[in-house]
Design goal:
The complex is a heterodimer of chains A (398) and B (278). With 398 residues, chain A is α+β, with helices and mostly antiparallel strands. Chain A has 2 domains: 2-189, Ubiquitin-like (UB roll) (Roll); 198-390, 2-Layer Sandwich (Alpha-D-Glucose-1,6-Bisphosphate, Chain A, domain 4). In chain A, 28% of the residues lie in helices and 25% in strands. Chain A has helices at residues 23-30, 82-93, 103-116, 122-128, 140-155, 223-230, 233-239, 334-356, 369-386, and strands at residues 2-8, 11-17, 49-52, 55-58, 71-73, 183-185, 211-219, 243-245, 254-262, 265-278, 283-292, 297-310, 313-326. In chain A, the strands form 2 sheets. Chain A has a 7-stranded antiparallel β-sheet. In chain A, strands 2-1-5-3-4 form a 5-stranded mixed β-sheet, sandwiched between helices. Chain A is elongated and about 85 Å long. By secondary structure, chain B is of the alpha+beta class. Chain B has helices spanning 14-23, 37-42, 78-82, 93-99, 104-107, 112-118, 124-131, 149-152, 238-241, 244-253, 259-277; strands at residues 7-10, 28-31, 50-53, 63-66, 69-73, 135-140, 143-148, 153-155, 158-159, 166-173, 180-186, 196-203, 208-214, 221-223. In chain B, α10 packs across α11 (259-277). Chain B is globular. Chain B starts with 6 loop residues before the first strand and ends with a helix. Classes of the chains: A alpha+beta (398), B alpha+beta (278). Chains A and B meet through β4, α4, β6, α8 and α9 of A and β1, α2, β3 and α5 of B. β6 (183-185) of chain A pairs antiparallel with β1 of chain B, so a sheet runs across the interface.
């Protein structure tokens, strides 16, 4: 906990909060200013919008500790504000609210538009309000209300302030802390949590993948040699970046984990897989299932491979299918997974090539192609994470 | 959701910040405006043990005109650019890009350096600054190095930043009077991350053009000498010479396998070219 001192609605306040406490929770829980609402808690819905140093900001993705010394104005602090008073009357007149949940944030954003927009331009008002979601009104009344206030004020020769009155550079709310008070709150427990045992995954069912990616790579060794190598699960696992085995592998059950990073996002899927092979056409299939404890996400994955002789060795055709459920699945983009998969496969291929040539691919005791399936899901996971906000399935991979 | 607990440091100057990052044996993350990192923390997609807040560092909130370029501190915000609180060396190009990033409440805190460090392929500055030919100074305790934008973004959310290194300044070359600029993006909802971005800086009198196809799922396609997109020659009639097929092949080569998505990207780029020629 940390003592945070700032100004809220023109009153100097001090309260203890953890670094992870966002500004919205700070004003609601510590100061009982519950007019600030939290909707999505990741910066999309706009319900939590407050004024920070006089400018609108998202209080759900702004941490209170970062606002040391700042001036915060919540909806409660706008009771006497001229623009907001006019807006309240206009919202009432135009039926610009129904349930009222979005209204505090809506009023803060609307106030900013009234202050800054030169004219009551409907398009600019709509664009300006696009970061505040309302599920009741259809926005018509809200836009009308804002337009009427802008028109009325400009008619009274009140000039706009296009820059909102800000004269200094940098994020609003920042840099106001006492210069001598460099904050230092070292924490926190170790990041590593005890790995979930793969044995918690009992059965490895078949499934129909939601997404399928096709990839291939080549190695400079004959198919027979590559196929034999693919039978050595531990060796294959060692070639796969981020993979590790948690138990001695058998074809019918390979237990392991795969850790993948996309930028700052990391997930570790613990799980199990089984391996099937067909010597006749030099193909195989790995089916796996796994969970990432942290994001409470699950994945099922399948890799089908087929070795094709080419002039300089072997081309390995991969078909990677996966289904992801849980938090990471809410926001996913197969295209990002493909980007990551391509990079992983390139690394895997070069490790494999090196190992086939008799040099070690480095350290790594790792999982297997099974892991690979998991990896991809994982990939996707991270990816997904990334998109944190509003993903859509973009570059559909089929 | 609420973030997992993290430690927090607000160093008093850049040197102290670099020292903290250099000695961090735990997982440390730099936060500036937090408009990208905040959502990831709240969703617990990222769980650093330590957050280093650089928004208090005056060194990173400065802007200076140095010869033929503008040098922006990493913590200059999108709204700072939008509102013209920094000098304009791109004849309004950066200002227009800034004004269309996300929402005003986000622009008031989100920083240029933070957005670049986050390396989201769909972020506006990633594409716009690549097209403008910007370079970045990256600093660590060991010293500084300069990297061109097109080498800075490595992949989705992957930048060339090493451990303990931060984006210190962004160097934007002044746009020549003879150059044309076009920037277009496609968003299904205003303010969301773009599904396609096209950017072009073209100077017919110098027969030079930089073109960026962005918001693909990996690093943007940066074409520093874009003559092939215009039938091999860049001249005043470039709008009519734009060859959509070449752009389509570039996208396919970059791994955009879905023809409909390539079509959107190509057309967004075409819009950027038309805007430049307008």
């Amino acid at each position: 906990m940390n003592m945070i001192a700032l100004t809220v609605n023109q009153r100097a306040v001090q309260a203890l909060a953890e670094p992870r406490t966002n500004l919205a929770d700070f004003v609601r829980d510590k100061l009982d200013l519950t007019g600030t609402h939290l909707g999505c808690e990741h910066g999309v819905c706009g319900a939590c919008t407050v004024l920070l140093d006089g400018e609108p900001a998202r209080s759900c993705i702004t941490y209170a500790v970062a606002c040391e010394g700042a001036e915060v104005t919540t909806i409660e602090g706008l009771d006497e504000d001229n623009i907001t008073t006019e807006l309240r009357a206009a919202f009432t007149r135009e039926h610009a609210l129904q349930c009222g949940y979005c209204t505090p944030g809506m009023l803060v954003s609307a106030r900013d538009l009234v202050l800054r927009l030169p004219h009551a331009d409907e398009r600019l008002i709509r664009v300006g309000l696009s970061g505040n979601l309302c599920r009741c009104t259809g926005y018509v009344g809200i836009v009308r209300a804002v337009r009427s206030v802008i028109e009325a004020r400009r008619a009274r020769d009140i000039a706009p302030t296009p820059d909102g009155g800000r004269k200094i550079l940098g994020p609003v709310g920042s840099g106001r802390s006492d210069a001598d008070r460099a904050e230092r709150m070292r924490s926190v427990g170790s990041e590593q949590t005890s790995p979930e045992t793969a044995s918690s995954v009992s059965a490895i069912p078949d499934f129909v993948p939601a997404t399928v990616l096709n990839q291939h790579f080549s190695v400079a060794h004959p198919p027979e040699q590559v196929f034999a190598m693919f039978d050595d699960i531990a060796a294959i696992a060692a070639c796969l970046p981020g993979a590790s085995l948690t138990a001695p592998p058998k074809p019918e059950r390979v237990e392991g984990a795969i850790r993948v990073r996309i930028g700052p996002i990391a997930a570790t899927f613990q799980g199990a897989a089984r391996v099937e092979r067909s010597l006749a056409d030099m193909s195989g299939r790995i089916v796996g299932i796994g969970n990432d404890r942290r994001s409470r996400s699950s994945t099922q994955g399948e890799i089908r491979y087929r070795l094709v002789p080419i002039e300089q060795g072997t081309r390995v055709d991969l078909s990677i299918g996966y289904t992801l459920t849980g938090m990471l699945a809410q926001v996913g983009r197969p295209g990002l997974v493909r980007d990551l998969a391509a990079r992983l496969i390139a690394e895997f291929a070069s490790n494999l090539d090196r190992r086939l040539s008799g040099t070690s691919p480095g350290d790594a005791t790792a999982a297997e192609l099974n892991g690979m399936a998991l990896v991809f899901s994982l990939l996707r996971a991270r990816v997904a994470g990334w998109v944190g906000r509003f993903a859509s399935s973009k570059d559909g991979a089929t | 959701m609420k973030p997992a607990p993290f430690g927090y440091e607000r160093p008093r100057d850049l040197q102290a910040a670099l020292a903290v990052l250099g000695e961090a044996k735990t997982s440390a993350k730099i936060i500036a405006g937090g408009q990208s990192l905040g959502p990831m923390l709240n969703l617990r997609l990222v769980e650093p043990q330590l957050i280093v807040d650089i928004t208090g560092l005056a060194e990173l909130k400065q802007v200076e005109r140095r010869g033929d370029e503008l040098v922006l501190g990493a913590c200059v915000t999108h709204a700072d650019v939008e509102d013209g609180r920094i000098p304009d060396v791109t004849r309004g190009a950066m200002q227009r890009v800034a004004g269309n990033i996300a929402y005003r409440a986000v622009r008031n805190r989100g920083t240029v350096g933070g957005s670049l460090s986050h390396a989201d392929p769909a972020a506006d500055w990633v594409s716009a600054l690549s097209a403008l030919g910007a370079r970045l100074t990256l600093r660590s305790g060991a010293g500084a190095r300069m990297v061109a934008m097109e080498h800075f973004i490595v992949g989705a959310l992957e930048s060339a930043l090493r451990d303990g290194e931060i984006v210190e300044t962004i160097h934007v070359p002044a746009m020549r009077a003879s150059a044309h600029w076009g920037y277009a993006k496609s968003c299904r909802k205003t303010g969301e991350f773009a599904h396609a971005i096209g950017a072009i800086l073209i100077d017919p009198s110098a027969a030079s053009a930089r073109v960026v196809i962005g918001a693909i799922d990996s690093a943007p396609i940066v074409i520093t000498n874009a003559a092939e997109l215009f039938g091999g020659r860049i001249a005043g009639d470039y709008k009519d010479r734009f060859d959509a097929r070449v752009a389509d092949v570039m996208l396919a080569t970059a791994g955009v396998s879905n023809a409909a998505h390539r079509h959107i990207h190509v057309n967004v780029l075409k819009r950027a070219v038309r805007e430049a020629a307008a």
